[in-house]
Here is the input.
Amino acid sequence: MSEMLELLAREAPAEEFERVLQTARNTGASPEDLERLTRAKDLSLNIRGLFSRRQQREAGLSALVDTARDLTHPYNLDTLLKVITRRARLLLGLDMSWVTFHDFPERRSVVRAADGHTSSITVGFEVPMTGGVGLQARKRSAPFWSADYLHDDSFVHSQVIDNVVRAEGLHAIMAVPLRHEESELGNLYVAGRRIRHFDPDELSLMSSLADLAAVAIEKTRLLDQARDEVAGLELNTSRAMDSSATANRLRDTHSRLIDLVLEGGGLHALVTEAAPLLGGGTLAVRDHAGRTLAAVGDAPAPAEEAVRAASLDAHAERRPVRTRAGVWIAPASAGQEVLGTLVLTPVPEDRDAAPDDLRVQLLGLVAQAAALVLLMQRSAAAAEGQVRDELFNDLLKEDQLPAAKLAERARRLGVNLDGPHVVVVARPEGGSLGRAVIWASSYAHQHSGLKSVESGSIVLLIPGTDPGAAGKAASQELSTALSHPVTIGTAGPVTELSAISRTYQEARSCLDALTALGGKGGTASPRELGFLGLLLSDSPNTAEFVNNTIGPVLDYDAQQRTDLARTLEAYFASAGSPTRAAETLHVHPNTVSRRLERITELLGPSWLEPSQALEVQLALQMQRTRRALLRGRRDQAGRASG
Here is the structure.
């Protein structure tokens, strides 16, 4: 047996495990020993395979992080697609990969980029949309694969695709849909020249890559669109204006702004650069909700109602508009999607001046540059967010990866998991789950936490020590955002990575308990559920329960040398009769009444209500048991020392 462990420890190849078993057979080992050795060999190989798969997954996630960073670079579309296909092929170690874009009117997909040794699948090759794994991936909005394409009858084939697969000698093929928002862009394909079965980790890896690729493609399209629009604007301007100096100014301004964005300048750098070009005043960029993201200048804020009305007109007409007060509003958008709004408040002497065509065109250029910055920030955030979600999903699994590897991944992502955290599980009782997921991403980012989606509920890991307070804060924000109630279960705090999964199960149990008790729309942690929370907890803390329930009474007894706890026990034992309790305690009934009044001051008037009275009795029983156990240990220690 020890030989198997030694082989496992030094990651020996599978043949050496078999060799140990064969040696035992040759030396005449008994059937029982051979059976045990065979069992040890099988278990060792299973463990070896598990470690190997985990290492592959770690390598895949690491490569995905690098890919996410790579895709945020300012490529043109053709270069970007080449990067995507090469990354896809290398991630799974396959022979070929290619990207197709859909042409729905013509019922076809066109290859836009390919990587690997290929002769038939080249740029411009037309793939029918009537069959193949690509059709299945589009229908299911999820990856679809075949281990041996030509011999797989589980989907509809296309003769054109079959001929190409046969010519290239392909067997294993996977198609992953490229989707952005509600748009179907095309498919990402990977293929190999041998039979291969893809495991769930590989499917997840390719799905994440496809999501990142779709965002990057949309960002690059916007950049190309901005360049085309500016080129057209320059052409029209050069034709319409008599002065070539004006056209040169527009061209120079466009180059400066685009260079600023591509060099990594954010919104603040953009408005700082653009404000003087627009004649001074105050220039601000707002998000789609009207919140100011960056601003320069100190002019008084314009009237909000006028800005909102002008913003609607600007986005509807897709051009800058001016309010009656002389404030300019310009839309920062990508296609039909509103990304933000530029608000220019000119200096006082310019507010009543006639509209300046040059200023309007310059403002349009600045708005396009702002839209590009916003889209690039969103794509980078989406890339990082997906990798952070992968980390949290692994932390929630009962069969976790080694804590050291999870901690290393967290450090690489800039996630600090060293301090105490609480787990919040929120289930919207109505409204859109998609909207709740968007809220959760923002909330987790603001609080330096992590988010996931499990079984229709939002799961958050938030720094903190009070799960009840964290649940109430999340409930208030999410219910307001959705205009629907939210039921929340919380648990914690947790300080060990290995305990996050167990803490999540406790929070989920609290959520289920609230639902079973008719408490939809409420929040609860094991502490707030009282003795029910104690039963639900995987690691019940009886001392904390006793302290939370009757702690003030115990502290008062210790400080004042009174018998309030004993009075409580006698009161409950006598079915709530002060007179009978007085007989048990050998005191006057008035003494019991005064003690009960003191208990009410300490515990609050609700301690006599049925639910809390039950918890008080349970806490008293636990306290008696704890004292008896402590006394027994002391007596045993005394006898041992004597």
Q: What stands out?
A: The domain at 542-641 is CATH 1.10.10.2840 (Arc Repressor Mutant, subunit A). Residues 237-243, 534-538 have pLDDT under 50 and may be disordered. The two ends are 47 Å apart (CA to CA). Residues 439 and 463 are 18 Å apart (CA to CA).
